[in-house]
Amino acid sequence: MRPGETVLDVGCGTGLATGALLSRLSSRGRILAVDLSSRMLHHATSKHPDSRCIFVQGAVQHLPIPSGCADRALAFSAWPHFENTISTLYEIRRILKPGGQLHIWHHDSRARVDDIHLHIGGIIAEHLFPHPEMLLHACQQAGFDELELVDNATCFRLSLLRKEA
User: Fold this and answer.
1) Phi/psi zone of residue 59: left (φ > 0), alpha (ψ -120 to 50 degrees), beta?
2) Interhelix angle for 85-95 vs 132-141, to 10°?
3) Cα–chain-centroid distance for residue 10?
């Protein structure tokens, strides 16, 4: 990450990744922290009252953010909670500049995340990771190239590059 980047923090929740991102940015860097939940955004705003951070409430498939304004997007511990993979990818692609990167990261494997969600039950039990081949196919369809895919016992990490056209 370069110090002056604009980063889209997708599904920021209480701001766990937001703080780490802020620590890597210069005074020119910006974070667009997005979450559907006003309660989560309230916590994130309280934890990070930083002028470099703009908090936006909304569904990730329809964000009130200008096209081509972000250098990078991060979905940290959030991906299974987005309702429609392909429309989420298209919206993130719209917001990213050509050549921008999308990172989908979890501190657990895809299988462990699914196990946790199934154990919680209720609506969360429906928030499961797409199979990696299906996710990669959706990413390619939405205009991304794969940079890295790691899915092991300790993490899930997918990094993508927004294609130029």
Assistant:
1) beta
2) 40
3) 4
What is the C-alpha separation between 46 and 121, in angstroms, rounded? 29
The predicted structure's pLDDT at residue 25: 95
Contact 77, 9 (CB under 8 A): no
Tokens representing residue 36 in the block:
């559907």
For the entire predicted model, the pTM comes to 0.90
Structure tokens at 58: 């909304």
Q: Residues 143, 93: contact at Cβ < 8 Å?
A: yes
Helix axes 38-47, 16-24, angle to 10 degrees: 40
β-bridge mates for residue 33, sequence order? 9, 55
C-alpha dihedral sign at 81, 86, 91, 93:
positive
Tens digits of per-residue pLDDT, 55-91? 999 999 999 999 999 999 999 988 877 888 899 999 9
What is the reported pLDDT for 140?
Answer: 95
Please say if the pLDDT value at position 33 is more than 80.
Answer: yes
Decide if 160 contacts 147 (C-beta within 8 A). yes
Class of the CATH domain delimited by 6-162: alpha beta
Tokens of residue 60, six digits:
């990730």
